[in-house]
Amino acid sequence: MNNSMITIKNVNKIYDNTTALHDVSLDIKQGEFIALVGMSGGGKSTLLRLIAGLEQPTSGSVTINDSSTDSLMRVMFQEDRLLPWMSVLDNLSFGSKDKNTKAHARQLLDLVELGDYANHFPNQLSGGQKQRVALARALMTDPKILLLDEPLGALDALTRRKMQDLILDICQKQNLTTILVTHDVEEAARMADRIVVMKNSTNSYEETCPKNRNVGQIGLVADRVLGEILEEPTLEKQTA
Ligand SMILES: Nc1ncnc2c1ncn2[C@@H]1O[C@H](COP(=O)(O)OP(=O)(O)OP(=O)(O)O)[C@@H](O)[C@H]1O
């Protein structure tokens, strides 16, 4: 049985004179957690945008192997993108008066441990709390695919670590197919089933992470991945 959720086949994405993606192929299984890492400008966010359907490839194909609905996929960004004039609860339910919608929103706030903050406004929350609201909001439509574009980049190390555990726990329990773009190789090694390194706009290196890994294994995987990333010639060398 083919249980692949996302199939990316020979994708190229060219903007004017810039090749953002070159011959990228990737098969992502249902329930798999993928981390995309690599040098700045390597095409990570571009690939995420193509998967989200926000842009189209120049050539090649991105196929989502599920009956497409609007709620299939949700993206979470580095900025929380909450509406400042709405309470936390309304940010999830978009002000809906529907009892079921509100109950679902409250359930999700409990899930992200913010049950007591439903009536707060975004400016009354810490950065980590705002990102937890953003996570709860992303889950409102019961998506099957979660796309995470550096969602923890602005958080301090301790909050970041707690958010990593929370996201992992939710993704596992809800069997979400997840793609995380991150600059933090240790975060990738801690969270992902598979790490894909974008090198010269190509996904030329992959690392499968051991299950139930310990701290030592996380460190080893992170080191190897970092070594792969740093092998890439600098931008100056590429254009020379
Ligand atoms: N809309 C656009 N128009 C023109 N060029 C773009 C556009 N979006 C991305 N690019 C270029 O494509 C390349 C890949 O960009 P992308 O943002 O995908 O990289 P990234 O790996 O996510 O980088 P970072 O880690 O810095 O966020 C870069 O050279 C970038 O300048």
Automatic annotation (TrEMBL):
Matching Gene3D superfamilies: P-loop containing nucleotide triphosphate hydrolases
Molecular function in Gene Ontology: ATP binding; ATP hydrolysis activity
Pfam families: ABC_tran
Keyword Nucleotide-binding: yes
Keyword Ion transport (UniProt): no
Keyword terms: ATP-binding, Nucleotide-binding, Transport
Residue span(s) of domain ABC transporter: 6-225
InterPro entries per the UniProt record, alphabetical: AAA+_ATPase, ABC_SmlMolc_Importer, ABC_transporter-like_ATP-bd, ABC_transporter-like_CS, P-loop_NTPase
Protein's UniProt name: ABC-type nitrate sulfonate bicarbonate transport system, ATPase component
